[in-house]
Amino acid sequence: MTIQFNNESFRDDYSFYNSERAIKRFPFPFHEDSYMYSVNMEQHRGGPVDSVYEMRFDVDEHYVSEMRDRAMVLADDPLRCQSLPHMTLAGWDLLELIMVSKSEDYPDLFELHRDGNKWRWINKPLGIDHSFTFLDEATLPCGPMEYITRQAQGDFAVLDQRDDNLWMDAGMVTTQADWSLDFDIGMNFFEWHAPVPLAHEKGIFVRALKFLMNIQQGAPARRLNWTMTVNPLLDTSPENYHKWGIQKTELTPQNIGAKQHLRVELQTFFRLPRSNALVFPIRCYLCSFQDLMGVPKWGRRLHRVIRDLPEELATYKGFIDNRPMMLDYLKDFDDGLPTSPGIWPELDTEPPLTR
Amino acid sequence: MSTFAFPPSIKSRPVYGTLEPQAGAAHMFIVDGEGANAVLDLAQRAPSMMQLAHIVYITRGTDFAAALKALNPAQFYQGPTYGAALPRIRRSLADAKMGLQVYLAGTEGLMGQAMNEAVIAGIPHTAIQTEHRGATARRMQCVHCKGITEDVETDPFVCSHCGLNLFVRDHYSRRIAAFQGVCIDAEDPGNVPVQKGIYE
């Protein structure tokens, strides 16, 4: 498989776009016509061919441009990547996991040659050919976590496990849904989730923590999460909220189809072998409303989910003010027909929109 | 006695107790303002522990020095501000031996910053006692410019560094020893609600 990498931006002129292929493989996050928090975990053991679930770390047409955007964010604010001193070994674990996975899953794009601790890493899309000594920081231009996550799409939270809890002790966070690594680093699982409404009361975090602490090597897990973003802006950080927040007010009935994006996080969880840390990649996929509406099942379902979402969740996810305009747009794509279960587009079997 | 019942909040927000005497090889008290009263109350219940006590007292406009000294602590320090006391606190924690008990009392800002120093020195945060006394003002970090504004009493407030209008969140970072302030008028510049007390 050869990937054509887009040359696109996630800021300023927002030239980001999804190809036909990218739309079809978009991880639509709603498996039914309504949404509420749940511990929606499953094994991350592949999935349908060419889906975002197929490989351990999905590489898609946005890879090169996303890595360019990450470098720009880090140049503006180096605090987006931090690792507490005891987390360096976990950084090497992560580097190994990503290099091994990508070179096995995408042999035409990535190569890893190992002779003991003498490693050579070739990243063809980014033009990197680097020989280094595994576990010797002096042979890398920066720490191991930063080095490899400058070459991997999605944010990465690296969690230490101790005292029957998980601790956010390292991370690379430049494509986040409005949370600050710099503020949250060092917090435990309940503390960094503290601002999330409803889920604590439902016992979600107690159960999720229990599940995550028991993840074993070689048996990763995954779930989807979602929110809404106006414009394909990857860096919706609290740090820059005073700059991008205003964009939420720029939606009009005319531009909403192109500007309003469903933002989906493919969250995966891998146990790391030497450190016993847990790495939590949070991969962001964006798709405009108008592209989503090309899939009849998704059009019907998105309208129903957004319409029926509890107010607290619409507020927490930051689109309560825009919800009426969204529903006005989405209702034209909901003809009331039933939808099939599951997240997949089912383009061959789902009936076209009847008007 | 000025104690304040903080309303129930989210899980990152610290909760404070009442100082209890612990068995220990040494006792370090770091208090500001009316936090001195928490030490005086504790000493009434367990006067003998004062022989092993080091009291760091930051006045914050109060005058409890004579009363604290009368407890006959092993070491006593009175300082004008937390910043002035910090080198001494760090040195004392660096010199600490196994068995030291740490007690913090006073404002949230003082307790948060001193706890951070104790944690850096290797004491688990769960092993440190705290008791809130005195002002309910908060130490706030601006999430945008990262500047800290001390003793914030109103919501919203103006960041003392970058000048943005920030609302006061309950989300709290032990490492920064501050609550988070976030721009309140980003989506409607200039539309800033009237300031009110944080707990009004």
Secondary-structure topology with pairs:
The complex is a heterodimer of chains A (355) and B (200).
Chain A: H1 20-24, E1 42-43, H2 63-76, E2 81-83, H3 88-105, E3 110-115, E4 118-123, E5 128-133, H4 144-149, E6 155-162, E7 165-172, H5 181-184, H6 189-192, H7 204-213, E8 221-230, H8 241-244, H9 256-259, E9 260-271, E10 278-288, H10 289-292, H11 296-308, H12 311-316, H13 323-330
Antiparallel strand pairs in A: 1-8, 2-7, 3-4, 4-5, 6-7, 6-10, 8-9, 9-10
Helix pairs in contact in A: 11-13
Chain B: E1 26-32, H1 35-45, E2 53-58, H2 65-69, E3 75-79, H3 82-94, E4 100-106, H4 108-120, E5 129-132, E6 138-142, E7 148-152, E8 154-155, E9 157-158, E10 165-173, E11 178-183, E12 196-197
Helix pairs in contact in B: 3-4
Tell how many strands the DSSP assignment of chain B holds: 12
Number of domains of chain A: 1
Largest sheet of chain B: 5 strands, parallel
The share of residues in helices of chain B is 10-25%
**Which residues of chain B sit in consecutive blocks of at least 5 with pLDDT less than 50?**
none
Class by alpha and beta content of chain A:
alpha+beta
Q: β content of chain B, as a range?
A: 25-35%
The CATH superfamily of the largest domain in chain B bears the name Nucleotide-binding domain of ferredoxin-NADP reductase (FNR) module
